[in-house]
């Protein structure tokens, strides 16, 4: 009796593995095993496939459990006798913000993704039948070219590399990762990346072994499935699961006698890629050097005779805290980004062949709508604008930037932004010129690649390099026959459901390409429809609802964003603020929903804009929180609670009953609670798959934040857009609270759903400090981030004598800091980051001292490393019983002196770290701003989130940071001259 053929896919209850099982069930003539470590999830996945008429088998398999692997192998041996297809898909990856030390991440990731895979192969390879196919799922990160170290690449790429050599290398990586020296040894800073490089290297070794195997025609390949929308990519991939499963399925079903691919690296489009990495050519080119440009053009002319694709990507951008005058920034930025680009085009455009494609990399900052001046926008947007006109305008901007009058003339206050507006305007001019060019079908476009994780974005972008490169690559490979006439959005399909815009391309509406023609957009931006809607006007809501009903019949996405917030210095009585804020932000939202929810179509998505202020934990009262958190909370009960707050706010008794002193906060808690109720209602709705979520978009640079938010509008819009475009039948998020980074947060039990550890520490108690240091040493072995935040301050009306205030304040705020540092500094690991908060206030720079002698003393102590003098003088002057501290030049504030001392101490510690054998320990001192805390009697204009921003930034400075180091950082993240000022304008 002929045994049926058998296919096994590891880690296949979801994502790419699930897609591979689904494909094999349709295309493979045999039994397909869906495996998962969790039995419940595995069986649920089988049930989903059963609904599609597919019949996979299920067996539990945890690849990281030797017993589970052995049991599965024995099961297969006894029941089927052998395997015809094995897809090694199971793997893990830590998120970018994972709190685990990198050494731990490396050990766990390589144990699962590499060593466990070896164990699976050792158990199942003996069961492979002749003509079996093995697929190891790798990644773009599995490219050997991703390994920075040249010697490592040579070793890993050695065609005679053995399994023993490879395992030794991987164990060395883990050891170095634990010691924090892996990058010095040439490894990348990604445990997942190393694991996939190892899987690809392993595949080549296994391929050689199969060539010598007595069983006929066993073929193994390693596959990059693409950047896929899965849990591993936090649902942020570009490809659907179906697309990601295609290449692995193709490799699994290679026919008998296949000669290629064998032992090869397959890309998600099924193409064979050199596993050592792509092989581009290199030539030096400095676009800001006319000789370099000319030499490159001549080289291309002699060597190749012409160019088919030109991508103008080179550009620079000054950081926000750059110290160069804005006029200088403008001159340099425009010289490189605009005039340098023109020079490149002048040199290379004559070499463009027919059907060439040119891509000018622009930016969201390159939207003409970013230019404030209406006359300027009209001029720049003129379809007949000439190159001479454009260069004159840009030169005028540079001149006005140097004079400090550029904003008055209508320009934005960003040299980079102006340069990209200029690049986009230039592209339109060049497009017109190409239309009249005798060479056929040369097409040029300008592209916004997205906010990408690069050095230019200080590694803070939202998109990967792969995602950012997608649209420029698309524009570079436009097929022949595309005739440019309009700026059109390129749209990417998200799971085959929605079309999601990613940026501009130019072509006619009559072009013939394989994909549907996207809608036009104007050069000033997209062309949404407009309809008046005042959410605080019942008639306006009714009119809008009727319009939608008559014009479109229904709604697929509803984003409830409209809201108001009073400023901190608002003069209206709090009762009035509460009434107006709740009426608009909460009750009007209910009215909108009542009017528009009947028009929601199946699979509609609703997004309610909440806030970090909408966290339930922002409600001080325990009983109130219990009421809000009750999963059975009804809409009527919620409305009663909101009305009670307004009544109590008018009476001035709201704080007594557990409400916060912020009407905006209460309104957003109400919106979040309402969202949970609405989701429960949608679950019972006859219309299929309507989902509502509430989202905190981040602290964004808008009018509402008085333009003090650290996030751009693009960053703030990301999470709401993500929720608005959730694909059909997604299981999660539903009724959830989403943070601006797209993470689901526990709204009830926050804050942030984070789980920090706790340990008692009294900085004014030496024994407590010693105990804490010993605990850290024993439990963790070291520290990577130390923030010295603990401090006290006496109120201005404190009855204690000033001498006593001085003694206590300096003991806690200064001498205790020294004690903490003495205990914990020995535990700092290489690349550790230290910062203090708060370590500065506006009046506390050294220049604040009344006496020149005292200012000079502080500076002299810092320069001479004379900490003893600093200690003695600070203590002596501040303990003056007769009030002589003022005569000696000291401030009349013990708190201020303590913070000046801490800042001086930081500079001393910085010099000591420069001489420390541990690599790259960085310390800074920080002014977090005047924050709404107990220390300021809740009079500060900044929120806790705003105050925590700069210290967090300093605590997370990346390895190899050159600046800031030993610097005073303002709450805006600007570096300030501690000695001479000036302090930034708040």
Automatic annotation (TrEMBL):
- Name of the top EC class for this enzyme: oxidoreductase
- SUPFAM superfamilies in UniProt: NAD(P)-binding Rossmann-fold domains (SSF51735)
UniProt EC number: 1.1.1.184
GO MF entries: carbonyl reductase (NADPH) activity
**Pfam families listed in its UniProt record:** adh_short
Q: Which UniProt keywords apply?
A: NADP, Oxidoreductase
Q: Which InterPro entries match?
A: CBR1-like (IPR045313), NAD(P)-bd_dom_sf (IPR036291), Sc_DH/Rdtase_CS (IPR020904), SDR_fam (IPR002347)
Q: Which PROSITE patterns match?
A: ADH_SHORT (PS00061)
Superkingdom, taxonomy of origin: Eukaryota
**Coiled-coil ranges (or none):** none
Q: Which family does it belong to?
A: Belongs to the short-chain dehydrogenases/reductases (SDR) family.
Q: What is this protein called?
A: carbonyl reductase (NADPH)
Organism, scientific name = Nezara viridula
